Amino acid sequence: MSGDLSLNINIKEPRWDQGSFMGRAKHFFMVTDPRNVLLSSETLEEARVIVENYRAGTVKPGLTEDELWRAKYIYDSAFHPDTGEKMFVIGRMSAQVPMNMSITGCMLTFYRYSRGSDTATADFKSP
Fold this sequence. Notes:
The chain has helices at about 20-30, 40-55, 65-80, 95-125. It is mainly α. Pfam families: SFXNs. It is a multi-pass membrane protein. It is found in: Mitochondrion membrane.
């Protein structure tokens, strides 16, 4: 071991107990945190290096457990779980909330417009 942090931490599993609602909620909110969309490429690359080095058994000196878990969740939210490639911004887990809000807003706007036009047409055509 080349650092102060133990290599016994299992980062293949979520940090919190998945047998409880709060554990599942904390895990979900960390992976889908929309703030991760705004992270720079350098921050994403740093998180990738930390996670891959830890998996290989190398620990950066001075790395804390909280920093390791933060890097792991940044890695999970931006990189594909099977290929390890960085995903396009709107395809990342951290982009699900903002992207779905945009889609829902557009759908509601279109619905309101189309429904209003339909009602106006019906009112105009009615005697």
